[in-house]
Prior knowledge:
The protein is α+β, with helices and mostly antiparallel strands. It has helices spanning 12-19, 43-54, 76-82, 96-99, 117-139, 145-154, 169-179, 185-195, 200-204, and strands at residues 3-10, 32-33, 39-40, 67-75, 90-93, 160-168.
Amino acid sequence: MIKLEKTAVMNFENAIRGARNPLESWDRIDSYVSQDGKFILGSNDLELGRRLCRAGSDHRKFVRQIFVSVDITAPIYWWKEFDTYKVGTVANSTSTMHKIHSRPFSKSDFSYDKMVPEAEKSLEKVIEVLESLRQEFIKDKAENKAFWYSMIQLLPESYNQKRTVTLNYENAIGMYNSRKGHKLEEWHHFCDWILELPYFKTLFFD
């Protein structure tokens, strides 16, 4: 399971202006912001952007200045793979260390959509144990740190965590090319989301 929410794309206007700095062709800028606040990439700027993107990473520096922010909820096993992308990305997560005991455990806290029935039953048992440990811990936090440690160490990798992530279009194209054929379905959903970013397919593929 993966959920992507609150997507925001920023700095397109400044990135395009910067792309025209080398040839000082600012007079050909034809992009604008519509009345409803949406950035519209003009035909001149779109063609320039496409040429630069196709020329390779050394020439498409402007896409590193197109920023994306998104809230992602995904299981720990997916985040472990996402964490290989450290350069140019920033993520602030909900805290398992501080908040694991703050509310009851439920199946909705976990990704189990691909589990066979036997595995799902095992997960349900683990959730029962986790909830029992949580109840013991909140009785007296100072005396029951062992119960907190037990929750942390027992927590399955299917546990869902939410992070607010910032990246740029250069990060996005790298992730897409590396993960579009991955066996984890979460990566396919993530790559589909990348393709829906404003002008992404037009700049890199059309």
